[in-house]
Amino acid sequence: MTANILNGKELALSIRKNLKQQVEVLTNKPCLAVVLAGDNEASKIYVKNKLKAAEEIGIETSLFLFDTDVKQSELENLINKLNEDKKVNGIMVQLPLPEKIDEKAILNLINPVKDVDGFHPYNIGLLQNGSDKAVIAATPKGIIRLLENTSIDFEGKNALVIGRSQIVGKPIAMLLLNKNCTVTVAHSKTQNLESLINQADIVVSACGCPKLIKGESLKQGAIVIDVGINRIDGKLCGDVDFESTVNKASFITPVPGGVGPMTIAMLLENTLIAYQKQNKL
Ligand code: NAD
Questions:
Q1: Which of 38, 102, 179, 239 has the most CB atoms less than 10 A away?
Q2: Catalytic residue list contains 166
Q3: 205 domain-assigned
Q4: 156: which DSSP letter?
Q5: Candidates 117, 201, 239, 241; catalytic one
Q6: Tens-digit pLDDT profile for residues 226-246
Q7: One domain, residues 218 and 167
Q8: 269 falls within a domain
Q9: What is the 8-class DSSP label of residue 240?
Q10: CB under 8 Å to 23, separation ≥6 — which residues?
Q11: How many CA atoms lie within 13 A of 101 on its CB side?
Q12: Which one, of 81, 133, 138, 132, lies nearest residue 110 by Cα?
């Protein structure tokens, strides 16, 4: 058995094409404000890619750049200003923020309607309630779309989420629970991870441990979503050992070309949804 490859790049492209068509007919275009503070090289690349993708589909962008020594009050003032600005529909603060900044305080200040990353406690609460009004964080939202693309019947499936971060692990666990999966969340203190992997029909790995998941631990026919972005000797790889799992899984996401492109597409979708809500469309 060789797994079907869940091609996130292709799916993301078709979603972006569809979003572009929706934006094209709008007289006033949606606007995404992006805040980048510090000199984290990976963050600079992520921001560049997000801005480019937004502009390609006709979303207007404004980039707000700050040095590493930015003050908490400067960022808070900017968020307050962007919240008030009627032209701005979405606010995205690239994480991580510089060490001295209270990241949570900044994210909590964003107007939940403009919170296109879905990190505000209000949106996290709506997700927990299973509300369809929740803004869902881009990466977990993209993962669900990839899973839906397999036509899997989620009900009663054993889903294992590896990682419990606010941005991936916890929200994807909640989304899978809302879809009636039986969800287990593993983390760095979890014991006997292999036996949990062995029982899982769906494995979503977001722990940032290169090639942690091997084919031999996997249940035959499991669906494997690899969120990890790691490097071994400069070469990009996920949390999953692709070579050993590809013959055991029924579906698998590649790294790169799986979850990553979906994350960007979902950020664009969240921006358009924010625009529609603010314009009561
Ligand atoms: P994080 O560092 O905030 O969290 C990692 C989680 O993994 C923690 O909860 C930790 O307890 C758990 N963990 C660590 N080692 C473990 C182990 N040996 N066994 C089980 N659990 C373990 O990371 P994050 O921000 O959630 O990101 C996770 C990975 O996903 C990273 O590689 C990151 O680069 C990647 N990522 C990719 C995308 C994308 O769009 N493709 C988006 C976000 C994050």
A1: 239
A2: no
A3: yes
A4: T
A5: 117
A6: 999 999 999 999 999 999 999
A7: yes
A8: no
A9: B
A10: 29, 30, 57, 58, 59, 272
A11: 25
A12: 81
